[in-house]
């Protein structure tokens, strides 16, 4: 019973942290892009604009809910929930710290410490596309459908490069357990596997449909893509899923390549959070800097550049691991 209660408390903390992180990541993005473009971001609602996310949430909550005629209502309502749930579940196995002692008991700073953590992450991350595809199909809108189809093609293309980058880390660590991977990084793997990190980061941007890989919602071509027919809180849920996925991709990169919660000083969750925030800032910087790719160039980059590079990186990593194990 105690273990169940602890699990429920941990789950509540993770969900609240991600929802709060999503809200203030939107504020960080608007502030940071504003500074990059030599203008102010939100600065009217609350001190320094800090209450802007709350105002946005209230506005979306009271927006009119419109359901398009001819849509598949059950799937139409299910799709946003599926996107958010898959985004939240992915964070369950990511450790943000070591083991701490509290109230006479020891607690691991992760929701679930699975022996197959890497495999769980890959499986759950691939589920997020179903929400987007179902949203496009159920909306009875050709632009939405095209956005959903684009998203599935993009996921398949970049999931391969991302998986190869992750496998190179697993080879180096000799484990698919995330805590073992962090423990093995006396030297962060970003220095030992720089190509793997670059591959993972580029593929991660494409996985969460962020600019310059936001082709599933390209407003110049598809109005808004897969969520064209969504309004109010249903639209907000897709928005939420995108930003939570960005946080998750940054957290996984921190765990796999940046030694997780380990740092030059005392280890702890503060190092994990700092690294995640820095990677999120890079996501935002990329969005503010690079123009959207053309779709054929998106596919060409995934299949003709990243995939061969990922295979080469995997072969070299395997050879080096065998060489130094002897």
Overview in brief:
It is built from 13 helices and 2 strands. The protein is an all-alpha fold.
Explained architecture:
The protein has 326 residues and is an all-alpha fold. The chain has one domain. 67% of the residues lie in helices and 2% in strands. The protein has helices at 2-36, 52-61, 73-89, 117-125, 128-138, 142-173, 178-183, 189-192, 194-207, 219-222, 232-257, 269-289, 295-325; strands spanning 99-102, 105-108. It has a two-stranded antiparallel ribbon with strand order 1-2. Helix 1 (2-36) crosses helix 11 (232-257) and helix 9 (194-207) runs antiparallel to helix 13. The longest helix has 35 residues, at 2-36. The termini are far apart. The model has no long low-confidence stretch (mean pLDDT 88).
Layout: helices, strands, pairs:
Elements: H1 2-36, H2 52-61, H3 73-89, E1 99-102, E2 105-108, H4 117-125, H5 128-138, H6 142-173, H7 178-183, H8 189-192, H9 194-207, H10 219-222, H11 232-257, H12 269-289, H13 295-325
Antiparallel strand pairs: 1-2
């Amino acid at each position: 019973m105690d273990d169940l209660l602890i699990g429920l408390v941990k789950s509540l903390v993770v969900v609240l942290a991600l929802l709060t992180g999503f809200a203030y990541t939107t504020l960080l993005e608007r502030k940071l892009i504003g500074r990059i473009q030599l203008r102010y971001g939100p600065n009217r609602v609350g001190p320094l604009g800090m209450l802007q996310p709350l105002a946005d949430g209230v506005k979306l909550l009271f927006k009119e809910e419109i359901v398009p005629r001819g849509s598949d209502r059950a799937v139409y309502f299910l799709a946003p929930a599926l996107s958010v749930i898959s985004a939240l579940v992915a964070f369950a196995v990511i450790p943000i710290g070591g083991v701490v002692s509290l109230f006479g008991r020891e607690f691991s700073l992760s929701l679930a410490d699975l022996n197959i953590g890497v495999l769980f992450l890959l499986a759950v991350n691939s589920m997020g596309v179903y929400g987007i595809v179902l949203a496009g199909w159920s909306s009875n809108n050709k632009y939405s459908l095209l956005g959903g189809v684009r998203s599935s093609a993009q996921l398949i293309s970049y999931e391969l490069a991302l998986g190869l980058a992750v496998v190179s880390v697993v080879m180096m660590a000799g484990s698919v357990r995330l805590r073992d991977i962090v423990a093995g990084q006396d030297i962060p793997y970003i220095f030992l596997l720089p190509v793997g990190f670059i591959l993972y980061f580029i593929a991660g941007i494409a996985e969460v449909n962020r600019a310059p890989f936001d082709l599933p919602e390209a407003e110049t071509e598809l109005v808004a893509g897969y969520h064209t027919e969504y309004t109010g809180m249903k639209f907000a849920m897709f928005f939420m899923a995108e930003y939570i996925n960005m946080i998750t991709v940054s957290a996984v990169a921190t765990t796999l390549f940046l030694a997780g919660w380990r740092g030059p000083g005392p280890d702890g969750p503060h190092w994990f959070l700092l690294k995640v925030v820095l990677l999120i800032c890079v996501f935002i910087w990329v969005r503010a800097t690079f123009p959207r790719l053309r779709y054929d160039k998106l596919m060409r980059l995934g299949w003709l550049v990243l995939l061969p590079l990922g295979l080469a990186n995997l072969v070299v990593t395997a050879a080096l691991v065998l060489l130094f194990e002897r």
